[in-house]
Amino acid sequence: MTKVSLPTWTPETPTLEADLDRSRGRGIGTRFRAGRTKYLLGAICIALIVVMLAPLVFSVLASIKPTVEASAVPPNYFPTELSLESYDRLWNYGSGLPQYLGNSFMTAFLTIAMTLILTVPAGYGLARFPIPGKEVIFVLLLLALIIPYQALLTPIFLMFSSLGLTNSLLGLAIIHTTIQLPFSVYIMRNAFEAVPRELEEAAVVDGANSWQVLRRVFLPTMVPAVITVTLFAFVMSWNEFLGALVMLNRDASYTLPLILAAARSVTSLGSTDWGMLQAGVTIAVIPCVLVYLLLQKYYVSGLYSGAIK
Amino acid sequence: MNATKHSKLTGLLYLTPAIVFVLAFTAYPFFQMAWVSLNSWSLITPPKFVGLENFVRAFADSQFWVSLRFTLKYTLLITPILMVGGYLIALLTTTNTWLNRLTRTIVFMPVVIGLGASSFLWYWLFSANYGLVNKLLMDIGVIDQPILWLGVDATVSNWAVIISVVWKVLGFGMILFVAAIQGIPSEINEAALVDGASFWQRVRKVFLPLTRRTVLLVTLISVIGSLLAFDQFYIMTAGQPQNLTATSVFYVYLNSFPYLKLGYGAALSLLLAFIILMFTVIQIVLSRRSEA
Fold first, then answer.
1. Chain A closest-CA separation from residue B155 CA (Å)
2. Facing residue for B288 by CB, picked from A4, A119, A147
3. Among candidates B122, B76, B125, B65, which has minimal Cα distance to B247?
4. What's the pTM?
5. What's the confidence (pLDDT) of residue A61?
6. In CATH, which of 1.10.3720.10, 1.10.10.60, 1.10.10.10, 3.40.50.300 is domain A90-307?
7. ipTM for the complex?
């Protein structure tokens, strides 16, 4: 099998939109944008924005209702007074929110670190060295794409039991790394391939060895690819549910998604503690939305090169 | 000659960590799973070799078929909504005006939040007494009584989950469709305009044919994702009523973990992996064709 589906990654134009903006995408809607139609389409856009934002907005609003109001029947759309009681209960829930946040951040950090340590050299090796059987190796590295991890959790659980890696954030991070590996190898190999040969050759003539070439010549140009890989690894690890559910069964090692599951069974006033649950949702959502808004162009271009090209 | 040999070894050295990792945590578990699937094993008792018995059992297991059928039904219902919806929004927002950019940013936003978090959010919204969906429907007079959305009726539950997942992943297809439509050479579009083609004529004769590959790939990604659905059902319906909304991955999970039927769980995993593999192969073939 040859190069499965890869585009050449172009670090010079990391933003899809900025690129397309210049040349294309212009006249596509022209004729349609005249007169009343223009306002109609604008109105549809605004309606879409409202519908898509509403669930998130109401979740945040529910999280800042006083306890009684958050579990009122029928519910109110908007809080009549603001209160951080739900956050207070979440903060003190179980081993305490800081513990769970710490677990989630630690797992994400380990996942990012392992993914980069494995895929930066792998991308370099695949793109720049005449290795025998290179295509076979490449397909092997994409194996997790072919065998979904959902199907592998049983044997991995057995292996981790004997290695003492269940209830361990490192164990969970290993699973997250296997999930993220194919995409990251893709992105890294393409990023290395996109660097002009001349840059490398100049350094080799100066007597640099391959490791020095990697550090001095390649790494500075790898920044967009590293950001993309880091971003996707973070979002996946922060949100991943099934692996955590299977591997972690001790409260103190829970990550945030599991805490939501546990918090749902907590009752306040005879029903689920809805205020606390939505406080948990809000806290789980914030980092993802923030990194997305800050690094949107990497997200979109990474998605495009990973999924389509 | 010596230099080439040297650089071959160096290159292999850079690849070694990743290769070892994949062998240890993907390839080895896969073969172990194949072996476990040939055994009867409940973790407490030692494994006992039973040959293909677990597979034979799966085909006679009515819950296996219920789960598979339900997963297929979910996939068949949600995929067209995601594709048509995503494409329409892509057409709507394809020009780079500020409002269109903003719409794209907002529509895509739920894609980055967790399926777990979004499922807990919608679990609340769809709650019969405490949720805002019933509240809104009653306020605007569509219903008189709260609807029991989740875990009571399999079809109603399925639709509630579909609505939540459409909200969560609609932006995924949209953003890729926008990129594909914007990638159409402007001369082609202008030529169609000069010929007096209407907007919908251009959609049919220009946009759709020229973005066909993206549409196919996004459809496949979406089908594979839906066939592997777990979080949303585990969280929103817990498989209820009577495990009628337990998806295939859910059933594998139930057998392997709470029930600890490891051999049977592994056999089901293999069957699932095989079904997914068929779609992945189509995906890879499609991607490669474009390179030629």
1. 23
2. A4
3. B65
4. 0.89
5. 94
6. 1.10.3720.10
7. 0.90
